[in-house]
Amino acid sequence: MKKLLLLFSIISISLSCFAQDLPMIKGDTLYTTSGYKIIKDQPLKIGVGTMTDGDFKYIRINSASLFNNYSLTGYQGLANQANALQRSKSGMLMKVVKLQKRGSEKNGFVYYILLSGFPRYEVDVENAIKFGEIAVPDEFKPKTETASQTLSAADEIKKFKALLDAGAITQDEYDAKKKKLLGL
C-alpha cells in the first residue's frame, strides 16, 4: 500500500511539473487557450468588430500611446469607444510586433499583442478570439456549448406554466406553446 501511494505521489508530482497553463508566452510565441499560436512578426487577419457600431471592442489604441484617450470622469466606456479600432479595418492584415502578459498572481493575467501601424493597437487576445475580432482558422475557434445554452422542452414548458399561473398568458397560449415544444 505504501509503495502504491508513493508511486501515485511521484506520478502526480511529475505530471504537475510538466503541466502548462494556457494561455502562456514562451519565447516569441503566445499559446492561447483555444490552441491557436500567435508568433511575433506574424501577419494577423482582423475579423469583425463586436461593438454596436461595428467597431472593435478588444482591439484598441495601445494604452501607453500618446494618442490614447482617457476618461476624466472615471467612466471608461466613452474612452474605450474612442480608442477602438474602426470597423473599416475589418479584414486587414496587421503584423504582430510584441507579446505582453499583464496583471498579477492575485488578480490574474491578461495576454495582449501589439500590432504594427500608427498608432499601435493592442489586442486582448483571448476575448478577441472568442468574439471573432481576430480571424483564426476554424479548428482554433472556441467551441460553443449549445446544449447548455438552450433550454430543454421541459424547461420551456415549465417557464410557460409559470406564466400561465401568474396570469401573463392565457390557457390557449399555453396549450399552443406546449404542443409546439412537444412537436405535436
Structure notes:
The protein has 184 residues and is of the alpha+beta class. It has helices spanning 2-18, 77-83, 125-130, 146-149, 153-166, 171-182; strands spanning 24-26, 29-31, 37-39, 43-45, 59-61, 93-104, 108-115, 121-124. The strands form two sheets. A five-stranded antiparallel β-sheet has the order 4-6-7-8-5. The protein has a three-stranded antiparallel β-sheet with strand order 1-2-3, with no helix packed on it. α5 packs antiparallel against α6 (171-182). Residues 14-19 and 71-75 have low confidence and may be disordered.
Number of E-state strands? 8
Strand order of the largest sheet: 4-6-7-8-5
Radius of gyration: 24 Å
Fraction of helical residues: 25-40%
> How would you classify the helix and strand content by structural class?
alpha+beta
- Would you identify the regions where 5 or more consecutive residues have pLDDT less than 50? 14-19, 71-75
Average predicted local confidence, pLDDT = 78
Q: Biggest sheet, in brief?
A: 5 strands, antiparallel
Give the end-to-end Cα distance, rounded to a whole number of Å.
60 Å
Overall 3D form: elongated
Strand content: 15-25%
- The SSE string, one letter per element, is HEEEEEHEEEHHHH
Enumerate how many helices there are, as a single number: 6
Provide a concise account of the structure shown.
This protein has 184 residues and is of the alpha+beta class. Helix content is 33%, strand content 21%.
Secondary structure topology:
Layout: H1 2-18, E1 24-26, E2 29-31, E3 37-39, E4 43-45, E5 59-61, H2 77-83, E6 93-104, E7 108-115, E8 121-124, H3 125-130, H4 146-149, H5 153-166, H6 171-182
Antiparallel strand pairs: 1-2, 2-3, 4-6, 5-8, 6-7, 7-8
Helix pairs in contact: 5-6
